[in-house]
Amino acid sequence: MVEGNPLKWEVEPPENFLGNDFLYRGVKKFLWSEWPNLKKIYPNFFTVDQTEKGLSVDWSKYCFPEDTLNRFPCPNLTMYGIVQLNVGELRECVRQNNFLIKIEHKPIRVATEILKINRGHTLLTNFNKEGKLRIRTRIKVELSKIAKWAHNMNPILNHIEEFNHHYI
Amino acid sequence: MIGLSKLERRFSEVSKSWIETPKEKNWLNPSSEGFAPIISKIKIKEIHSIEETLKKYKTRILDNWDNSVCKEFNEGTWKRTTNLIEAVLKNLWYIDINIHIPIILPYYDSSFDIHWENETFHLTVNIPSVLNQPVDLYGQKIGSPEYELEVLTHYDLVETVINSWLKEIL
What we know:
The complex is a heterodimer of chains A (168) and B (170).
Chain A: E1 22-28, H1 29-32, E2 55-59, H2 65-70, E3 80-86, H3 87-97, E4 102-105, E5 121-125, H4 137-146, E6 148-149, H5 159-167
Antiparallel strand pairs in A: 1-2, 1-3, 2-5, 3-6, 4-5
Helix pairs in contact in A: 3-4
Chain B: H1 4-7, H2 41-63, H3 75-94, E1 103-106, E2 112-117, E3 121-127, E4 135-141, E5 144-153, H4 155-169
Antiparallel strand pairs in B: 1-2, 2-3, 3-4, 4-5
């Protein structure tokens, strides 16, 4: 993917997000460690405090799921899984449930201590119209229904953890 | 087969909800007032399985507690979460409604989701870490949108809401 000069990256409007595009997000082990079935996504795949300024995701127009994984300090699948949300399904979910969630492109042009430059950086905003730091359970559940692991980005349990997970 | 002597308990040792009988049943024998009704071997095992499962959940959650991003584990929130699960399961199992032990999903702020899901229904109950915040429930009976449940209510009322809804859909 041609990057160009980061300082010249423009913010793209919501309509540039096509129905076949995906939005990727890392899910840390703490959240998925209790999932009984690691093939599916459960409602706690993101947390409320992560949505305060918008939930960060990576746009497939400029990112591969591997890029999302590699931005983490410990970029391996024993610590993170990478979830994908299809933009078309997301819009349909928002419409059917009358959610107010918006997709806002927000490229990171300058690296900081925490964030690397990222042309595909996007925020899902407006989870709660009152702006309170609490997301309705309905939103989490409905989004988890359309979320999937990106290809080959399922998290991995180590041998002992897998035994404990299934048998203890 | 466990003998009667091992199953019989005195009233004072058994919580009241196990002594009150449903109207259509009357297996409480008045001639043995000093003893609680016989609790079947199956029910004792199942009650024990709730406690064991919840203990294992707590151990695993604490093993994976990420102190770099999580607030301190909130024992009070955990207790509210597990008390609710125990109360609902005992209530429903007592009247032979077959429902599995739910999973508990943690969040960074030490709130928890109680999550039931199978081919018949799903129900998620968020127990907030802030004491006076309401509990947020969302559930659906699969294929029957008229039974959708979406409620924000005080913790003290949640058990009643869950029991009523599950009795209706199961």
